[in-house]
Amino acid sequence: PKVQWLKELGMDDSQVAKTITKFPQLMGSCSLEGNLKPKVRWLRELGMDGSQVAKTIMKFPQLIGSYSLKENLKPKVQWLKELGMDDSQVAKTIMKSPQLIGSCSLKENLKPKVQWLKELGMNDEQVAKTIMKFPQLISSCSLEENLTPKEQWLKELGMNDEQVAKTIACLPSLLGFSLETNLKLKVETLRDYDFTDNHIVQVISSFPQLVSYSAKRLEHRLCVVKASGLLTDQSSLSFMKLTDAKFNA
């Protein structure tokens, strides 16, 4: 009955198999009527359609198998709403990172990270938007090993609190990038092209997406623009946004 039920949710044979492999207990101790169906009903009440429910379960089947609706899932959703999200925004956030309302502790994990965002200077609305853009920020990134070192690094570059908050609010996924093999590498590339740290701070705080492009693309485009004599100490690097076709035109 459970396999048939998963198919009725919209999964094909291979998706059902992957879901069961991720969480075999789904087929065993989890009651269909008492456990699985009520949670799926609840996800639908938040505004998910059938295919969204299926995708969420495939990502993290433990969500409907391991966690209590009353003691775990509902309190976290209530907390997200208190941050300023409506049902639809909560649903989108869960779809991106179902672990957020499952395995993450509210007291030890989620709340301290939100507190950290607020201490950077974000208000509730900015915090909610940042989490909606990149929920992994509070579900997967470690405060000690990931978030704080990156905040420190941005400040060492010369950013003030307001610039750090603005940069993270614009591109929260920046906090998921590697410091050594991504962020520092790109800053070194800019320095190689005679960008001062002050200019780098201005560019990244006004155009954080810069660090989301590959190092290869950054290096190539800087090289081309410099060779054409158009790279100045006032460059905003907006040419990074152009498609290859437009850039090469």
Overall pLDDT: 93
Strand content: under 5%
Structural class: mainly alpha
Order of helices and strands: HHHHHHHHHHHHHHHH
Helical stretch count?
16
Q: Roughly how many Å apart are the termini?
A: 59 Å
Describe this structure in words.
By secondary structure, this protein is mainly α. The chain has 16 helices and no strands. It has helices spanning 2-8, 13-22, 32-45, 50-59, 62-65, 69-82, 87-96, 106-119, 124-133, 136-139, 143-157, 161-170, 179-192, 197-206, 215-227, 244-248. Helix 13 packs parallel to helix 15 (215-227). The longest helix is centred in the middle third of the chain and has 15 residues, at 143-157. The radius of gyration is 22 Å and the shape is elongated. The N and C termini lie far apart (59 Å). The relative contact order is 0.07. The mean pLDDT is 93.
Q: How is the topology of this model organized?
A:
Elements: H1 2-8, H2 13-22, H3 32-45, H4 50-59, H5 62-65, H6 69-82, H7 87-96, H8 106-119, H9 124-133, H10 136-139, H11 143-157, H12 161-170, H13 179-192, H14 197-206, H15 215-227, H16 244-248
